[in-house]
Here is the input.
Amino acid sequence: MAIASVNPATGETLKTFEPLGREEVEARIGRAHDAFLAHRRTPFADRAARMRRAADLLDADRDDIARTMTAEMGKPLAQARAEAAKCAAAMRFYAEHAEAFLAPEPLPDPAAVKASRAVTRWQPLGVVLAVMPWNFPLWQVVRFAAPALMAGNTGLLKHASNVPQTALYLEELFSRAGFPDGCFQALLIGSAEVEAVLRDPRVAAATLTGSEPAGRSVAAIAGDEIKKTVLELGGSDPYVVMPSADLDAAVATAVTGRTQNNGQSCIAAKRFIVHAEVYDAFAERFTERMRALRVGDPMDEETDIGPLASEQGRTDVEELVADAVGRGALLLCGGERPARPGWFYPPTVVAGITPEMRIAREETFGPVASLYRVDSAEQAVRVANATSFGLGAAAWTRDPAEQELFTAELEAGAVFVNGMVASYPQLPFGGVKRSGYGRELAALGIREFCNAKTVWIG
Here is the structure.
């Protein structure tokens, strides 16, 4: 079956690609392994120069690649440009800091282990398979690729099948930047072919950002092969609002947190847990601002919300909302697809959520917000943690004791107080529970695909 780039705003097929055959996949794995044997020995200064060149090229290409992303998966054009800029910044971050992050770490007192010298050395693992999603088609890849290449690894990208042009752009970008042939390659293959790649003995490890079923599959195969994996899976992030919060700021940030990328983000705020003292005011202002967002052509600079990335994605969101309303939830705005071509769904707010509703248990991947009323900070924590996910969490409060409670007790890989959950190159990123394991970004991210080798000298 051909791999197709389809415009979700119109349903039009933009371009099709034939999947790589087994022989070509084998050849690409071989090139990646051969490239690793040489790339791992290159000086950090050489790798950094290439990575900075990639960042410069990406900056120059920003408008073009933004239009490609928007055409392939529907995010508003301004957000696509911002994503490209963020990727260039991450490349420069690792170009500057990789050598220090991976510097040998001597034991201060080697005599304690009966040695004259004892050191931990960080060395690359080899070829890393990256299975990446469509929702941030540049950023999800670059936050793996920049640290991996700077560490001396090489990469094989199995990107989501609806963003093939973005995948091929990334392969070309690293080649244009001067990385040797085979250092970073795109594999235009279907999901069924991932297992054979991961089982190839020349592939050392894998990273996946995507759904829980995809994560389980890759983890099971890698576990059978005893290969390292990092998984960043789904999220149903809580957004707690307490009486002491700056309500105007909390509402404005809530709207952005729920609707950026058309609501299709693992770390988007999804469950809004609001103290009873401010619930009515928050619900009124939040619903008003959600209703006012402009849904339309993602290429239009005035558009706030573009289409969902696929027809099935819209169907999934519709079914979650219909199930909630059918079980007694109150629809405050939205909830009906517009009468227009493309896979659009309006900003939607649903209140009165109860545990038996699917929307309380499953990730809602679209611009749909669920409202919960609570009577205390402790109840807010219980509601927030009543999920199988644990990616990000936000809490709005000026009370130091509540801030300490939320940062200590919310079950998440990241807790943001009085702000929106986001990813930064300087901070580790990842989840707990069924949101995955391992970390991307910061020093932890570059070390995930390195061997922490103990060196003991008598």
